[in-house]
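Posting this for the archive.
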Amino acid sequence: VQLQASGGGLVQAGGSLRLSCAASGIISNINTMDWYRQAPGKERELVARFGQLGTTSYAESVKGRFTISRDIAKSTLVLQMNNLMPEDTAVYYCHAKNRLGYDFWGQGTQVTVSS
């Protein structure tokens, strides 16, 4: 599985960005897909998850502001980010896990929120 993330950029606080992750390869075995982020000097953290049965979950810090969705037909994972805050500044990574438990990572896309 190959993951290609896009959509990052620079935005002012209160603004919105939409991240996309295009999956290719043997995607039929994908179990879950997620977005992680890593800010400078901090550990990578889970932001949002799209589960096998379409269930979604979010980090407390982004609940009510971010929405994760998956277009299976287009093999795309989307993260809609609204009301962005400076503390959302990080490199965002697309991640997938297949049914055998293997992990796949995208290359990361930078999100910078100015105050």
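The chain is about 0% helix and 55% strand. The two ends are 37 Å apart (CA to CA).
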